[in-house]
Amino acid sequence: MADRLISCDDHMDISQLPEDLWTSRLPASLLDRAPHVEDRDGQAVWVCDGKVWGRWDGKPPATGSARPVKALYNAFDRAAIYDQSARRPAVPGLRLADMDRDGVETQVIFGPIFQISTDDPVLRCACYRVYNDWLLDFCKAAPDRLIGLPMLPETPEAALAELERVIAKGGVRQVNLMIANVNPKLDDPAWEPLWQALEQSGVILSWHITVFVGKPGDRTAGKAASVFENTKFFWADKGGSALVTKPSDLFKRQIYATFQDDHVAMSLIPFFGEGHLLWASDYPHPDSVWPNSRAAIERQMRHLSPEMRRKLTRDNAAALYGLGGS
Fold this sequence. Notes:
By secondary structure, the chain is an alpha/beta fold. Helices cover 33% and strands 15% of the residues. It has a single domain (5-16, 80-321), classed as Metal-dependent hydrolases (TIM Barrel, Alpha-Beta Barrel), CATH 3.20.20.140. The protein has eleven helices and eleven strands. The strands form four sheets. The protein has a three-stranded parallel beta sheet with strand order 1-5-6. It has a three-stranded antiparallel beta sheet with strand order 2-3-4, with no helix packed on it. Strand 2 (36-40) and strand 3 (43-48) form a beta hairpin. The radius of gyration is 20 Å and the shape is globular. It starts with a strand and ends in a 5-residue tail after the last helix.
């Protein structure tokens, strides 16, 4: 295992989840509104409160294995795997086989962050709980190879409650805060109990860059690091109080960043240092490098020493997650 990769940003998309995930697990009071699969215009899709959340891949497409010339629907097309009805990423044996094919020992698995979008906070939190429970059970198939990230709701009280709940279940190394719609903003003191609980537990907090979406007119709209723009307003409100540690030093000490096939990331090694950059394959997305991760790594890291390559593709992550062989 010593030369195998650790991928720190992979996915479990809504298209791969079990058809009865929510209809079999939500509380009885919410079952009549549970996200469920319907057939619409020949495509199986998830529907909740009349809104389509996204496609479901458990039904063979009407076109079978046929693909338009030069089309690329997902990573599996690169591997000539066209039968999506098996929902490969959500079947432990198939996912592990895909990891073996790509030389990956461990994956850090983000969830379907866009599609759980009901406006009812009670139903939304319940959907998060169901998904989180299922994901943690899924990862028990290979706990040191499958690191699933439970999702936290968007309010301080609900996020703290869910964090404490999943920690009590055990096996949680990292969680993902649904940061695009947090209310209030992260500079609000109401979030402090969550920060304290994370620090005390040692659980890693993460977010995914594509969930940074500002509404028109928001002070953070259109900014890649939108939520963190709040910090400058926060410190201005406090009279520009002096920090004990420079923000850049805090960033280097506390923050880890993932990259996929990114030459800019290579140029940022001096800023991050050798220990805080983490490679990822982005399996199973269309823009992932699976099943050609080794070629992608060679393409962007050919100028780096073997020791540095190993840090970026394995050792940094092994140390962060407490995995063997670092």
